[in-house]
């Protein structure tokens, strides 16, 4: 089943033909399905050390160029590995979008078992490190993308609350959302990842080792990167460690935390009605995150 109505489905054969035609130095490497992709890319292993990212849908078609432009800039200044592209492919063989080849990063998707208390601090330190990267010339968040003022998403969130019906506690979610809107806005924009969900975090030996899928990156409200506090099932002490490290140095840590709760609702609530039948596991995970926000 396709995730989106206008999804472009890629196959290992298509990837092999594109690589052979455009990147002949890798033409002899085997292509096989990679790990399950997220909402906007199909993933394929290319040999042992590379990964091919194939956009599923038109809204992801600019990510290959954005990654190639900005991930090397970020990678040089962050404490974990990130998959800066080593090549960008052009449309071809009937495939309409640019695509990219990135390094394969070792690690397991984040969970309390593989991340641990030290890993939670690592994650907080990553969020804080992003705020130190110079923003000059960076892609400023606008419209309703992650990192804009939360008020830009007010209509969408309230519509999603109504559409979710009894799947969530609508009045309680609305109260948390109102509190997030009432928080002071960010003192200054900074770099952010924008999608620090567990599947985008890699860990080994209890430490955060890598962060993948930078499609939502840009310059905006740093509170958008506080969502691991509610998207990861952290123990209270681990959440406290993450909060302390991730908000260190902010002029408005309490307001940022309230906005962070709002950003978790933005991701979870808006996704819920859309993915309820298309990707049930993703929708149920969103329900669990909403419950964690309400309990915080």
TrEMBL record:
<keyword id="KW-0808">Transferase</keyword>
<dbReference type="InterPro" id="IPR002575">
    <property type="entry name" value="Aminoglycoside_PTrfase"/>
</dbReference>
<dbReference type="InterPro" id="IPR051678">
    <property type="entry name" value="AGP_Transferase"/>
</dbReference>
<feature type="domain" description="Aminoglycoside phosphotransferase">
    <location>
        <begin position="36"/>
        <end position="263"/>
    </location>
</feature>
<dbReference type="GO" id="GO:0016740">
    <property type="term" value="F:transferase activity"/>
</dbReference>
<protein>
    <submittedName>
        <fullName>Aminoglycoside phosphotransferase family protein</fullName>
        <ecNumber>2.7.-.-</ecNumber>
    </submittedName>
</protein>
<dbReference type="Pfam" id="PF01636">
    <property type="entry name" value="APH"/>
</dbReference>
<dbReference type="InterPro" id="IPR011009">
    <property type="entry name" value="Kinase-like_dom_sf"/>
</dbReference>
């Amino acid at each position: 089943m396709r995730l989106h109505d206008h999804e472009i489905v890629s196959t290992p054969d298509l990837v092999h033909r594109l690589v052979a035609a455009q990147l002949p130095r890798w033409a002899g490497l085997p292509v096989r399905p990679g790990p399950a992709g997220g909402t906007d890319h199909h993933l394929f292993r290319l040999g042992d050390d590379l990964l091919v990212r194939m956009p599923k849908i038109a809204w992801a078609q600019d990510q290959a160029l954005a990654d190639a432009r900005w991930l090397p800039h970020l990678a040089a200044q962050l404490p974990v590995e990130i998959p800066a592209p080593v090549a960008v492919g052009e449309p071809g063989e009937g495939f309409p979008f640019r695509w990219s080849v990135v390094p394969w990063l070792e690690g397991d998707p984040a969970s309390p078992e593989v991340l641990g208390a030290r890993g939670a601090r690592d994650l907080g330190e990553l969020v804080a490190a992003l705020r130190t990267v110079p923003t000059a010339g960076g892609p400023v968040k606008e419209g309703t993308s992650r990192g804009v003022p939360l008020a830009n998403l007010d209509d969408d969130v309230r519509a999603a609350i109504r559409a979710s019906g009894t799947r969530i506690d609508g009045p309680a979610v609305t109260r948390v959302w109102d509190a997030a809107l009432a928080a002071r806005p960010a003192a200054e924009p900074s770099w952010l990842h924008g999608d620090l969900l567990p599947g985008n975090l890699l860990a080994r030996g209890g430490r955060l080792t890598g962060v993948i899928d930078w499609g939502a990156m840009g310059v905006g409200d740093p509170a958008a990167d506080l969502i691991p506090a509610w998207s990861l099932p952290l123990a209270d002490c681990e959440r406290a460690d993450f909060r302390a490290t991730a908000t260190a140095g902010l002029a408005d840590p309490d307001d940022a935390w309230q906005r962070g709760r709002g950003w978790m609702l933005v991701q979870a609530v808006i996704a819920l009605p859309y993915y309820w039948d298309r990707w049930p596991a993703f929708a149920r995970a969103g329900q669990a995150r909403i419950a964690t926000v309400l309990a915080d």
